[in-house]
Amino acid sequence: MATLQNSYPPETFCVVHPLHDAPEAKCASEGLGPIVATSSVRVSLIVLRGYLLMMSSTLLYRVLEMAGIVHALR
Known about the structure:
Elements: H1 39-67, H2 70-73
């Protein structure tokens, strides 16, 4: 049976948790101005807003239905 011969020494990495790491310098955001949104980004945000409104209304309807309030409205 053939064995694999590896001539490279194994690499070891030191993993540091972000809470124990030294803080890094932050970039200054003064003077950058607003970000310009493209039309595809605007459409995506409108679709996302519609989806969130639909899901929120579905959740509200379901909660009211389980509470027995919706049956009184019919």
